[in-house]
Amino acid sequence: MSAATPFAPHAAPGIAAATVDLSKFYGSGDTRVVALDQVSVDFREGEFTAIMGPSGCGKSTLMHCAAGLDSPSSGSVRIGTTELSTLGDRQLTALRRDRIGFIFQAFNLLPTLTALENITLPPTIAGRRPDQQWLDRVITMVGLSQRLGHRPAQLSGGQQQRVAIARALASRPQIIFGDEPTGNLDSRAGADILGFLRDSVRELGRTVVMVTHDPVAACYADRVVFLSDGRLVDEMTHVTPDRVLGLMKSLGARAHTG
Q: Count of alpha carbons within 13 Å of 133, Cβ hemisphere only?
């Protein structure tokens, strides 16, 4: 194994998701665009990881490939020890439903369903009854106990995103992916959502991976990984806004002069 590979090809215990030499191309020949270029990264169980980088660096593409929402051009993606390339369409759909939670900038709630019905939609589709004790714990954590009978149009943006977080947690997923989950919220509502995500790691033992452009949002994470031009270029723990801003400025300057 080369020194550039940060972990063994077979995911070790404690790894919720991993990529090895992950590449994603669009187009061909002179029009080919490299979105990801041999990215190897692991997302550890019980950890909150933020993905950052300049606009167009490939951070959302990395999240979509790692979550099984998009197929890589080459390389390996695993959820736990399951290699996604070995799964058929139905198996991949089942894995995403049962083992992965998703939170997006657009809340993606069904307008005709109540908050509770939206929250319990994944296990309902799977034909399972949600674990009531777990569900009660999640609903209490995100502060929705008094809003369960309301439809999305009757809720604020922050409350709708709380519903989306509870829905992502309802099936006790192995890992939760968030793509700019506070992008449509004001700063106060955004801080609440980030606090809930951090609590889902610390209190519920979940694993969270979040794409963000916001240095303040990144500070809620245990670790930040940085992409530039489709490559993994740095990693940070003990995160502060100043440290993140400094590194982001460096990456931006590098992109303009490269």
A: 1
How far apart CA 156 and CA 191 sit, in angstroms, is 15
Q: What is the pLDDT of residues 163-189, one digit of tens each?
A: 999 999 988 888 999 999 888 888 888
| CA–CA distance, 98 with 75 (Å, rounded to integer) | 24
From 6-20, 66-80, 198-212, 219-233, the region with the lowest mean pLDDT = 6-20
- Burial, 19: exposed, middle or buried (Cβ in 10 Å; 0-12, 13-18, 19+)? buried
Q: HEC profile for 113-125?
A: CCHHHHHCHHHHH
Strand ranges (E), the chain? 15-26, 33-44, 48-52, 74-79, 82-83, 100-104, 175-179, 208-211, 223-228, 231-237
Contact 125, 97 (CB under 8 A): yes
* Residue 151 Cα distances to 90, 129, 159, 195, angstroms: 31, 21, 11, 24
Q: What mean pLDDT comes out for the span 23-46?
A: 91
- 195 pLDDT exceeds 60? yes
- pTM comes to 0.86
Q: In the block, which residue shows the tokens 């400025």? A: 249
| Burial class, 134, CB count within 10 angstroms (exposed 0-12 / middle 13-18 / buried 19+) | middle
DSSP-derived secondary structure for 138-154: HHHHTT-TT-TT--GGG
